[in-house]
Design a protein that fits this description.
The protein has 356 residues and is of the alpha/beta class. The protein is 36% helix and 14% strand. It has 14 helices and 10 strands. The strands form 2 sheets. Strands 3-2-1-8-7-6-5-4 form an 8-stranded parallel sheet. It has a two-stranded antiparallel ribbon with strand order 9-10. Helix 11 links the parallel strand 7 and strand 8. The radius of gyration is 30 Å and the shape is elongated. The model has no long low-confidence stretch (mean pLDDT 95).
């Protein structure tokens, strides 16, 4: 199966992934519809906005967190103080539901992904996905990383809250059984991430340390007016951007408060489009659009005073003025010592056929 995400990333094109996660449960409650209908609505809106892929989170609370697991998020936005209790609210979907979502994604032509958080879901998602996404929370869970890598599919690996040696071990684990494309996603495990904590220079370090990997960024900041965080990440080299996604950023709880909505997504894509346009080419050459200005703004060798016919040209007879339509100043040595074929008036742009 082909992956639009991987194909675009390998070509250096921008990729935007909307992490729906489990936000569809809250959208369903808000709108009085079924979670499945809410999930499909979010997919449909993502497609309309131009997003390339949608990602869910597949887990069961019992296999993910101990009953007394503490929170690590902003309690003013999500008041649940136990990971187990939070995850239990949003874990009703299983294989049949994700299969239905995958089929719907195929129908409207947007890529389906879901992060597996247990071995069972890693197995059944294999039938539904072109790419595995591994959470930062599992970066040190090397047996689980190896299990997914053995599926021999491309991997998107988030590396939030990690040190270089941990990233190295995770990559080594993947590479022992998988040579498929690998995307490393810089992210900060702080929900929401203050702008000053985005630490985007890490993207440059990742590009230098892991040149064989594609580098991306999983963003947990609140969308800013100019989308400067994502634009900066892109300019620093992140080609795949993953961001939590909702239809209502004002909803309390879970991942709405730092998510993008479809309008944000459209503006992000337009911003990256603009950056690509102004980026231009890496070639060190004059642009076609500069040709007229180049010719008129540069200088030519110009006569300084009357140069009579038969006069041997000396340096003091010459000056340099615009436009650059005659002999260029860098060819002055070609002129010195030549003889004027005919009288050359003062302030004349010199041409080669004037001299012999």
């Amino acid at each position: 199966m082909k992956s639009v995400i991987i194909e675009r990333a390998l070509q250096g094109k921008f990729v935007l992934i909307a992490e729906i996660g489990v936000n569809y449960y809250d959208i369903a409650a808000e709108r009085g519809i079924l979670p499945m209908d809410a999930a499909k609505l979010m997919i449909r809106e993502a497609k309309a906005a131009g997003i390339h892929g949608v990602k869910f989170q597949t887990y069961k609370a019992e296999t993910l967190a101990a009953k007394k697991s503490p929170y690590y998020w902003d309690l003013t936005e999500e008041p649940t103080t136990s990971q187990f209790e939070l995850f239990r609210k949003f874990d009703s979907f299983g294989y049949k539901e994700y299969q239905e979502l995958k089929e719907y994604c195929d129908e409207i032509e947007i890529e389906f992904l879901s992060t597996a958080f247990d071995f069972e879901s890693a197995d059944y998602l294999d039938r539904l996905m072109n790419v595995y996404k591994i959470s930062s929370s599992d970066l040190s869970n090397l047996p689980f990383i190896a299990y997914q890598a053995k599926k021999n599919k491309p991997i998107i690996l988030s590396i939030g809250a990690s040190n270089a040696d941990e990233i190295d071990r995770a990559i080594d684990t993947i590479r022992t059984c998988n040579s498929q494309p690998l995307i490393l996603m810089h992210c900060v495990l702080e929900y929401p991430t203050p702008y000053e904590h985005a630490n985007l220079n890490k993207i440059i370090s990742l590009k230098e340390r892991y040149p064989q990997a594609i580098i991306g960024y999983s963003d947990h900041t609140k969308p800013s007016e100019g989308y400067d965080i994502i634009a900066s990440a892109y300019l620093k080299g992140a080609r795949v951007i993953e961001k939590h996604y909702t239809l209502n950023k004002r909803l309390k709880g879970n991942d709405h408060y730092h998510a993008m909505d479809p309008d944000d997504a459209e503006k992000i894509l337009a911003k990256i489009d603009f950056l690509d346009k102004i980026g231009g080419s890496y070639e060190l050459k004059c642009l076609d659009s500069e040709a007229k200005a180049r010719q008129n703004a540069r200088r030519s060798v110009v006569s300084k005073g009357l140069i009579s016919k038969g006069t041997v040209i000396a340096e003091e007879m010459l000056t340099f003025k615009r436009p650059g339509t005659g002999i260029s100043p860098d060819n002055t040595s070609f002129i010195i010592g030549k003889t004027a074929k005919y009288d050359i008036e003062d302030d004349t742009i010199l041409e080669a056929d004037m001299l012999e």
